Amino acid sequence: MRKTLKNVADKAGVSTAVASRVLGNYGYASKEARRRVLRAAEKIGYQTDIIARSLITHKTYTIGVVISDITTLFFTSAVRGIEDVARENDYTVILCNSDENLRKETEYLEVVYEKKVDGLIISVSAENNNYLEKLIRGGLPVVLLDRGPKRIKATKVVVDNILGSCEAVNHMIKLGHRRVGVINGIDGTMTSNERLEGYKKALQDNDIAIDPELIKYGEFNMEKARESVQEFLRMENPPNALFVANEVMTVGALLALNENNIRIPEEMAIVGFDDPIWARLTRPALTAVRQPSYSVGIIACQALLQKMNKGGRGKISEEEIILRPKLVIRESCGEKSSRRRV
Amino acid sequence: MRKTLKNVADKAGVSTAVASRVLGNYGYASKEARRRVLRAAEKIGYQTDIIARSLITHKTYTIGVVISDITTLFFTSAVRGIEDVARENDYTVILCNSDENLRKETEYLEVVYEKKVDGLIISVSAENNNYLEKLIRGGLPVVLLDRGPKRIKATKVVVDNILGSCEAVNHMIKLGHRRVGVINGIDGTMTSNERLEGYKKALQDNDIAIDPELIKYGEFNMEKARESVQEFLRMENPPNALFVANEVMTVGALLALNENNIRIPEEMAIVGFDDPIWARLTRPALTAVRQPSYSVGIIACQALLQKMNKGGRGKISEEEIILRPKLVIRESCGEKSSRRRV
DNA sequence: TTGTAGGCGTTATCAA
DNA sequence: TTGATAACGCCTACAA
């Protein structure tokens, strides 16, 4: 016998309407009816079919999460944050890796839309995505994670990349390393643009001219970063400090430095964006910009829940939450201004 | 106007049955009918409501993935593998972090069951889980990931932990470190048990007595591992080699070693289970057991797809796929038997 | 407070 | 080849 509402109702000797009301915990039902329904449901082992339910209610208690790559330090912990608050609120998470690829991203958007997610958290790969904007206009609650292009009207939860990289570069300059190179991510990417901007700002603040030769792109790729450093080292006037825009590129950079027996920080200071677990393990320990990635996830999901429950559909709320990264000073830039070892 | 099948049919001047057939691409439909339906659908911007569909077909094209923690090296890349093949096959992934907690794990199982996933990939936290076994008996296609308790009847995709740790420990012994300590994960956990077994096997193979004092549990926790090493160092007869059962604990162990100025590998050899990106960065570079985690994900998902499409429901196929980890020899155990640097 | 009955948007059967 | 029509399992006016 199938476990349907009708069977529960029959067994309890009431109508499906009554049964539905007590099981759904709303509307009228006498004590007696309630008792009988509950008992019958229990006996049968009834579980409401949420597919059938959402056909009517238009709620799926599911949120879509599209990020570029779960394998990336920042995202794994952001996703963990999202999942944690989603769970607390009885939502379920559909995970999608777009690989920073607009086509893939759009395909995923189509999928999650088709699956009728109640809301969406997305780390967009480009300044604009027509399909995404269409969804937003259509009333889908959306929160932008980590990247908040101006033209997309949605709630945004991002970290202050400019501040982070500016502080990082400034730190090196203050310690006397005035010729600082940068290994940035992917040209054109929002986060990369911002990190570059912070880099430039720090130089300007210190009246140092910007030298285009000192700006390279490692594409968030270890090997590419390694090569970039090799190129730096081959210059006639190489940098004596390095700002590297994410974890894996920092690994690549350090590898290249080691291979060439460059002494850190004497010959080359270095600070990485992202503060990985291994930062204290290198010699010298790595000074790094720590992103509050878990918090980003938590907050993004909370914001989404709020939008969804405000009957979000209809009004587009646009809010920007900017989290501050933190420069964790260790030893890779020299001891002078270092506080305590972490 | 709502975009329903009925509207498409009306516009095309056919019945919903015909429209459904051409849109669903099955059954009879004349060329003319097909053309008209397609055109009407296009015009209206019709998209089939997969909720309504799955109410009938009992397919959701969704698979549940429950792991202990996405934040963990092994799982982030396994999940990436799962997601990649799921996507290729038009399936979507629901992600759940159980934190190695049976209650949480079971709650998630209830959720994904309620959501009517077509299949499940799970990294079980215990030797048995009644609810899970009930689901399996009920015909849900299930693949066990990373841990394959005997009593659970399902397809299993695991890595050979015994082999991995045995090789690791054996490697150190061969290099002359005969007093080897182990920092294992959580006592009772399957993977931990196996890694311990491999450790013991290596000792036995080399006729070395097992000293209980040399076995500690770091609970997959950096701080705990660090303390364990401190304790080792305080022993009157401390180990001169260390086998550490996962990435974060290896960080903790190395930290403790550094703090105490223990020279690696002269005073203490070390090999870690898991070969993280930073392994080449420490001095000396870390010798480590590399798990084929991405492959584990790929294969697990492929196996699941197979089960699902074989009308898996009904027959319980039980197969065990064991992947070999690889000992990557670098410098943390001494140079003698090291091949090439990686 | 209860029950009847009409959806929700598809798929699937079966007679025509 | 086609099209009524009955499911699928639940929610929810609305009448009683």
DSSP strand tally of chain A: 12
- Find the structural class of chain A using helix and strand composition: alpha/beta
Output the number of helix runs of chain A: 12
Largest sheet of chain A: 6 strands, parallel
Q: Overall pLDDT of chain A, averaged?
A: 94
Greatest interface and its residue counts? Answer: A-B, 44 and 44 residues
Proportion of strand residues of chain A: 15-25%
Spatial strand order of the main sheet of chain A: 2-1-3-4-5-11
What's the helical proportion of residues of chain A? 40-55%
| Shape descriptor of chain A | elongated
Offer a quick outline of the entry.
Chain A is of the alpha/beta class.
What does this structure look like?
- Chain A is an alpha/beta fold and 342 residues long.
- Chain A has helices at 5-12, 16-24, 31-44, 50-57, 73-88, 102-114, 130-137, 161-174, 190-205, 222-234, 247-259, 293-309, and strands at 62-67, 92-97, 119-122, 142-145, 155-159, 180-184, 215-217, 241-244, 269-273, 287-290, 320-323, 326-328.
- The A-B interface holds A 47, 49-52, 54-55, 60, 62, 69-71, 76-77, 79-80, 83-84, 87, 92-97, 111-112, 114-116, 222, 247-248, 251, 254-255, 258, 276-278, 280-283 and B 47, 49-52, 54-55, 60, 62, 69-71, 76-77, 79-80, 83-84, 87, 92-97, 111-112, 114-116, 222, 247-248, 251, 254-255, 258, 276-278, 280-283.
- Strand 2 of chain A pairs antiparallel with strand 2 of chain B.
- The first copy, chain A, binds a DNA duplex (16 and 16 nucleotides) through residues 2, 4-6, 14-18, 20-21, 24, 27-30, 33, 48-58.
